Amino acid sequence: MSAQPTPVTAVTAKNQFVQGANGVRYAYRRLGAASPSVPPLVLLQHFRGNLDNWDPALVDALSARREVILFDNVGVGLSNGTVPSTVAQMARDAIAFLEALNVKQADLLGFSLGGFVAQEIALIRPALVRRLVLAGTGPKGAPGMHGWRQDIADHARRPEPRGEDLLYIFFAHTQTSQAKGVEFLGRFMQRSVERDQPSSLAARDAQYDAVLDWGIPDHGQLQRLTAIRQPTLVIQGDDDLMIPTRLSHLMAGLIPNARIKIYPDSAHAFLFQYPVEVAGDVDTFLSA
């Protein structure tokens, strides 16, 4: 009897590269079973995050039922080019990556800054997006989105982020949530080969410019959400210190076909605190 192939996991998935029509060489990882009837789930990463910043427990749980694609957008990690300073251009760069892979339609899960990009993709290329998951993110122009409070900004923008910075930003300041954060840090460091390159300080600054531009208060920009027609799942922790949790309720109220779930005793990285539960909720939504 021939040996069964070893399943590809978040820790073992190979780094792959594809050239976009924009001249950018994108780095990506692909895992899970592709299906002609089920579009891939594309994950859009947070501020300063690269391929390695996704929780392996979350990625493996998501890829158990569908194909999952992780990638570094322009100028991030192992992808070349210069990080743009607007979300709109990040969205167009993400579209160029999907076109390079010949992905005709995808489900999107955008986390934090990646959630900004996911909203923009759904608006400027609606036929590309089947379903949308917005995690720990907020809408353009909403009150309270114009940058982060000082303590969060100090930890998030540190030249070389440390474990304690991630714990402060990502997890609620409770004993139980912090303990889950420590578990996440252990999983985060499991991959020992073909690790991604840390994002540069220039990438950090361009991304924060994009965050600030997205958050300039503008009530009219909120009306853009009414044009998102895809079924949408909005998810967030109940005490997010980076992006106010109340803005998830605002998004869910403005997007016509949206549902919302808030996870208890958690903050910005609730999806890394509850990876199996979140993956189950996402799978149920995408399979509906």
TrEMBL record:
Pfam families associated with the record: Abhydrolase_1
Keyword Transmembrane helix carried by entry: no
Protein name (Swiss-Prot/TrEMBL): Alpha/beta hydrolase
Record's keyword terms, sorted: Hydrolase
Cellular component GO terms, alphabetical: membrane
Superkingdom of the organism of origin: Bacteria
Classification via InterPro entries: AB_hydrolase_1 (IPR000073), AB_hydrolase_fold (IPR029058), AB_hydrolase_sf (IPR050266)
All residue ranges annotated as the AB hydrolase-1 domain in the record: 39-273
GO molecular function annotation: monoacylglycerol lipase activity
